[in-house]
Specification:
This protein has two domains: 59 residues, no CATH class; 110 residues, no CATH class. 28% of the residues lie in helices and 30% in strands. It is built from five helices and ten strands. The relative contact order is 0.15. This is DUF1707 domain-containing protein. It comes from Spirochaeta africana (strain ATCC 700263 / DSM 8902 / Z-7692). It holds the Pfam family DUF1707.
Protein backbone atom coordinates (compact mmCIF):
# COMPACT_ATOMS: atom_id res chain seq x y z
CA UNK A 1 0.00 0.00 0.00
CA UNK A 2 2.84 2.34 0.91
CA UNK A 3 4.59 1.56 -2.40
CA UNK A 4 1.44 2.40 -4.34
CA UNK A 5 1.21 5.76 -2.59
CA UNK A 6 4.87 6.47 -3.35
CA UNK A 7 4.40 5.53 -7.01
CA UNK A 8 1.40 7.83 -7.26
CA UNK A 9 3.37 10.61 -5.63
CA UNK A 10 6.25 10.19 -8.09
CA UNK A 11 3.86 10.48 -11.04
CA UNK A 12 2.53 13.74 -9.64
CA UNK A 13 5.87 15.48 -9.13
CA UNK A 14 5.52 19.24 -9.46
CA UNK A 15 6.97 20.65 -12.67
CA UNK A 16 9.70 23.28 -12.50
CA UNK A 17 10.06 26.38 -14.68
CA UNK A 18 13.10 24.79 -16.30
CA UNK A 19 11.10 21.70 -17.29
CA UNK A 20 8.32 23.87 -18.71
CA UNK A 21 10.89 25.83 -20.72
CA UNK A 22 12.36 22.61 -22.15
CA UNK A 23 8.90 21.48 -23.28
CA UNK A 24 8.25 24.91 -24.81
CA UNK A 25 11.47 24.64 -26.82
CA UNK A 26 10.58 21.11 -27.97
CA UNK A 27 7.20 22.36 -29.19
CA UNK A 28 8.71 25.33 -31.03
CA UNK A 29 11.18 23.00 -32.75
CA UNK A 30 8.32 20.67 -33.74
CA UNK A 31 6.42 23.60 -35.26
CA UNK A 32 9.50 24.72 -37.19
CA UNK A 33 9.91 21.18 -38.56
CA UNK A 34 6.24 21.07 -39.62
CA UNK A 35 5.22 18.34 -37.17
CA UNK A 36 2.52 20.59 -35.70
CA UNK A 37 0.94 23.77 -37.07
CA UNK A 38 1.01 27.11 -35.26
CA UNK A 39 -2.57 26.77 -34.06
CA UNK A 40 -1.73 23.51 -32.35
CA UNK A 41 1.51 25.05 -31.09
CA UNK A 42 -0.47 27.79 -29.35
CA UNK A 43 -2.87 25.23 -27.86
CA UNK A 44 -0.05 23.05 -26.55
CA UNK A 45 1.84 26.02 -25.15
CA UNK A 46 -1.28 27.03 -23.25
CA UNK A 47 -1.34 23.52 -21.80
CA UNK A 48 2.32 23.95 -20.80
CA UNK A 49 1.58 27.21 -19.00
CA UNK A 50 -1.34 25.56 -17.16
CA UNK A 51 0.50 22.35 -16.28
CA UNK A 52 1.40 21.65 -12.67
CA UNK A 53 3.10 18.25 -12.79
CA UNK A 54 5.77 16.53 -14.84
CA UNK A 55 3.17 13.93 -15.85
CA UNK A 56 1.03 16.64 -17.45
CA UNK A 57 4.08 18.02 -19.25
CA UNK A 58 5.07 14.59 -20.58
CA UNK A 59 1.60 14.08 -22.04
CA UNK A 60 1.88 17.29 -24.08
CA UNK A 61 4.81 15.97 -26.14
CA UNK A 62 4.05 12.23 -25.97
CA UNK A 63 3.50 12.04 -29.75
CA UNK A 64 6.66 14.01 -30.63
CA UNK A 65 10.22 12.71 -30.99
CA UNK A 66 12.72 13.70 -28.34
CA UNK A 67 14.49 16.84 -29.29
CA UNK A 68 18.02 16.60 -30.65
CA UNK A 69 19.85 19.93 -30.59
CA UNK A 70 21.75 20.36 -33.87
CA UNK A 71 25.20 21.82 -33.83
CA UNK A 72 25.05 25.45 -34.93
CA UNK A 73 28.16 27.33 -36.00
CA UNK A 74 28.98 30.59 -34.21
CA UNK A 75 27.27 33.58 -35.82
CA UNK A 76 29.33 36.64 -36.83
CA UNK A 77 27.65 39.92 -37.77
CA UNK A 78 29.79 42.75 -39.16
CA UNK A 79 28.70 46.21 -40.31
CA UNK A 80 30.84 49.09 -41.56
CA UNK A 81 28.31 51.85 -42.21
CA UNK A 82 25.13 49.98 -43.08
CA UNK A 83 22.32 48.21 -41.23
CA UNK A 84 22.15 44.50 -40.48
CA UNK A 85 19.33 42.67 -38.69
CA UNK A 86 19.07 39.13 -37.40
CA UNK A 87 15.39 38.55 -36.67
CA UNK A 88 12.41 36.27 -37.26
CA UNK A 89 12.66 32.53 -36.63
CA UNK A 90 16.30 31.51 -36.40
CA UNK A 91 18.45 29.03 -34.51
CA UNK A 92 20.59 30.66 -31.85
CA UNK A 93 24.16 29.33 -31.57
CA UNK A 94 25.95 29.17 -28.25
CA UNK A 95 28.34 31.91 -29.38
CA UNK A 96 27.74 35.08 -31.39
CA UNK A 97 29.84 38.10 -32.30
CA UNK A 98 28.82 41.53 -33.56
CA UNK A 99 31.12 44.25 -34.88
CA UNK A 100 29.73 47.67 -35.71
CA UNK A 101 31.79 50.57 -37.03
CA UNK A 102 29.33 53.38 -37.75
CA UNK A 103 26.20 51.51 -38.74
CA UNK A 104 23.65 49.49 -36.78
CA UNK A 105 23.31 45.82 -35.87
CA UNK A 106 20.05 44.47 -34.46
CA UNK A 107 19.89 41.00 -32.92
CA UNK A 108 16.26 40.12 -32.24
CA UNK A 109 15.66 37.01 -30.13
CA UNK A 110 11.86 37.43 -30.01
CA UNK A 111 11.05 34.50 -32.32
CA UNK A 112 14.42 32.77 -32.10
CA UNK A 113 14.75 29.10 -31.19
CA UNK A 114 17.30 28.95 -28.40
CA UNK A 115 18.33 25.51 -27.07
CA UNK A 116 21.02 26.99 -24.82
CA UNK A 117 20.79 28.11 -21.22
CA UNK A 118 23.64 30.59 -21.76
CA UNK A 119 24.67 32.51 -24.86
CA UNK A 120 28.04 34.20 -25.30
CA UNK A 121 27.92 37.48 -27.27
CA UNK A 122 31.17 39.25 -28.11
CA UNK A 123 30.79 42.84 -29.31
CA UNK A 124 33.00 45.58 -30.74
CA UNK A 125 31.36 48.97 -31.29
CA UNK A 126 33.23 51.96 -32.71
CA UNK A 127 30.65 54.72 -33.24
CA UNK A 128 27.71 52.58 -34.29
CA UNK A 129 24.81 50.95 -32.47
CA UNK A 130 24.18 47.35 -31.45
CA UNK A 131 20.60 46.70 -30.39
CA UNK A 132 19.54 43.54 -28.56
CA UNK A 133 15.85 42.62 -28.44
CA UNK A 134 15.18 39.88 -25.89
CA UNK A 135 11.90 38.30 -24.71
CA UNK A 136 10.64 39.10 -21.23
CA UNK A 137 12.22 36.80 -18.69
CA UNK A 138 15.57 36.59 -20.47
CA UNK A 139 18.63 38.03 -18.75
CA UNK A 140 21.45 40.07 -20.30
CA UNK A 141 24.71 40.36 -18.35
CA UNK A 142 26.87 43.20 -19.70
CA UNK A 143 29.09 44.15 -16.75
CA UNK A 144 32.21 42.94 -18.57
CA UNK A 145 31.80 45.37 -21.48
CA UNK A 146 34.52 48.05 -21.44
CA UNK A 147 33.30 51.54 -22.37
CA UNK A 148 35.41 54.48 -23.57
CA UNK A 149 33.05 57.37 -24.32
CA UNK A 150 30.12 55.27 -25.45
CA UNK A 151 26.90 54.26 -23.71
CA UNK A 152 25.32 51.01 -22.53
CA UNK A 153 21.54 51.36 -22.18
CA UNK A 154 19.77 48.57 -20.32
CA UNK A 155 16.02 49.11 -20.82
CA UNK A 156 14.98 45.65 -19.66
CA UNK A 157 12.27 45.98 -17.02
CA UNK A 158 10.73 42.51 -16.80
CA UNK A 159 12.10 40.31 -13.98
CA UNK A 160 14.20 37.30 -15.00
CA UNK A 161 12.54 33.90 -15.15
CA UNK A 162 14.23 30.73 -13.97
CA UNK A 163 15.10 28.44 -16.87
CA UNK A 164 15.11 31.09 -19.58
CA UNK A 165 18.31 31.96 -21.48
CA UNK A 166 21.03 34.29 -20.23
CA UNK A 167 23.01 36.40 -22.72
CA UNK A 168 26.54 37.11 -21.50
CA UNK A 169 27.94 40.15 -23.31
CA UNK A 170 31.66 40.90 -23.47
CA UNK A 171 33.66 43.33 -25.57
CA UNK A 172 34.18 47.05 -25.98
CA UNK A 173 32.34 50.26 -26.85
CA UNK A 174 34.38 53.18 -28.16
CA UNK A 175 31.90 56.01 -28.78
CA UNK A 176 28.92 53.95 -29.84
CA UNK A 177 25.85 52.56 -28.10
CA UNK A 178 24.74 49.17 -26.82
CA UNK A 179 20.97 49.00 -26.24
CA UNK A 180 18.99 46.18 -24.63
CA UNK A 181 15.20 46.22 -24.95
CA UNK A 182 12.14 43.99 -24.84
CA UNK A 183 9.90 43.66 -27.93
CA UNK A 184 7.49 46.52 -28.42
CA UNK A 185 4.25 46.17 -26.49
CA UNK A 186 1.06 45.36 -28.35
CA UNK A 187 -1.41 42.59 -28.95
CA UNK A 188 0.53 40.71 -31.62
CA UNK A 189 3.82 41.22 -29.82
CA UNK A 190 2.28 39.62 -26.75
CA UNK A 191 0.97 36.70 -28.80
CA UNK A 192 4.36 36.14 -30.40
CA UNK A 193 6.12 36.27 -27.03
CA UNK A 194 3.83 33.57 -25.64
CA UNK A 195 4.27 31.38 -28.72
CA UNK A 196 7.96 31.86 -29.44
CA UNK A 197 9.29 32.85 -26.03
Amino acid sequence: MQNQRNQGKNLQTRASDTERFQIEEQLRAAATEGRIDFTELAERLTAVYNSRTTQELAAITADLPERVVPAVKPLALRVSSGIQKKQGVWQVPAELSAECNSGQVTIDFTQAICPHQEIQLNIAINSGVIRLVVPEGWQVHHDEVSINSGVSRDKLKAPPRVGLPVVNVQGSINSGVLTMVHPRAGFWAGVLRRIFG
